Task: structure prediction
Amino acid sequence: MEAKLKWLDDPRVFRVNQLPAHSDHRFYRDQTEADQEKSTYVQSLNGRWGFKFANNPMERPEGFYKLDYDRSDFGEIEVPSEIELNNFAQINYTNITMPWTGKIYRRPAYALGDNKEEGSFSKGGDNTVGSYVRHFTLERGLKGHDVHIVFEGVERAMYVWLNGHFIGYAEDSFTPSEFDLTPYLADGDNLLAVAVYKHATSSWLEDQDMFRLSGIFRDVNLVAQPEIHVQDLKIDAQLADDMQTGNLGLALKMTGQPGSVQVEVNDQIGAPVVNQWLKADENWTMAPVQLNNVHLWDNYHPYLYQLTLTVRDAADRVVEVIPYQFGFRKVEIDKDNVLRLNGHRLIINGVNRHEWNCHRGRSVTLGDMHTDLATFKENNINAVRTCHYPNQIPWYYLCDREGIYMMAENNLETHATWQKSGQDEPSYNVPGSLTQWKEAVLDRAKSNYETFKNHPSILFWSVGNESYAGDDILAMNDYYKAVDPTRLVHYEGVVHTKEYRKRISDFESWMYLSPKDVEAYLKDNPDKPFIECEYMHSMGNSVGGMGSYIELLDRYPQYCGGFIWDFIDQAIEVVDPVTGQKSMRYGGDFDDHHADNEFSGDGICFANRSPKPAMQEVKYYYGLHK
Result:
């Protein structure tokens, strides 16, 4: 294990034995399960887990994953949840500054070639460790199959063992991590063990403006692999320039040897649109099928077609059913640099949305998502930026269904490495053009694309947030352009690096630029449309100047609107020990030093999801361009 701890300090090691990212499709044993949305191929491991907290790696229970280890002093923790919100560790909020600044000297690994505290993440300091254990027995539907484990989200670096055997290692807190458990599964009781480290070199890549939390904060599932299985699904729904003709193609990656795959597509009233059979000699691809007079997907009419794949073995027995809804829409920038959707000018009435619950932190619930979407609809909000990381998978399906335009952002922000004391100072900027970081950030872009590529709600990919610019970010931009010409790419950070401006991002974007400066750009024969990825910082008695931005929409078609910072306060509700009253606490209210205090409270909703007065302003002005 000591050798493996060095991975925490090495930016070149970010996934070990982790399976490649793939589409987020759900799969079922038969059509009945699909109709009920309950798969017997899936077994949840959510619930109470054994748990031991350590203040640093040197105090961790070394060898806790072994079958004969004495875990009698372990307590319990709920999965999913945040370690800090279970009173095991210090709650802390910072915006730009790294949490350890002023406590321990650290510089990004390999950035200077002179790390004064080599091994700082693995040797101690403020790097807390959560040691998790969970016993399980495979449910009937999983027995006899290869079995994978999927962690939907773990902050920030984790090691996984099964029955004492090392399974794998993963970073990237906000994308699914999947491992194959099959070689080490037992017939009866199994012991799963996970060590979660709050910090690794990936912490430099996840310097988002938020409470710095850790733990297994999203769902954990065992997933059986049918003997014949669609491992990856790519839906290619292209809309022709006439905005009436659709071309639908499919590409599948299969495991096992199926006899056939039936492809059925129905419209919203259940009428059949496509019914084809794929066989092995077709390489599991469906050549584009032309559909006439297709219904278009947009915010006003989020029309979704129903795709169903039915996988059969050589004996014609059904082994897997996959439902997936998709839509036809076309997003583009025209010759006049106007953003268009389905041929019409597109105006973004958007918000940035952190995943947040005032009791559960980033471990948000499906109910939270439904509430947020209802608020969007009530207040003329038509778009969301997943600031600054991929969200829970159900959110994407809900945005498809509700017609919410999405800017889908990578899990990347390195603010502290290039901005110090409010000034640009990129002497140890990450990732920059450093080869040591390139594969890690590219992997984040690939995971974002591969997981969510089939969602019509995603109009724009974002390579990250506030990470300056360099060859590594250029590589992410180029990756998205290569794999997905149907969407646009956004990155704001090129405003700091003019030499990359024409090479990165389809948009001009400058956070919190004043209306007069936005207008100056729009007046000067703009070569890119202008989008506000963050504007109208909603802190305190704010959002009052919104009209100055909104009026630009009527005068300049190259102006796209934007995304308000932000949707919901990050605050934690507690019961005051003196008054007995419930109250919201922000950064600095938990004896956390240093902290950026109430700067975490800049939503148009309070942390309990009730609207602030600013919401009235948002509803009015966004309602002018519905």
Q: What stands out?
A: The chain has three domains: 2-225, 229-326, 344-568+603-623. The domain at 344-568+603-623 is CATH 3.20.20.80 (TIM Barrel). The chain has a mean pLDDT of 95. The CA atoms of residues 467 and 591 lie 29 Å apart.
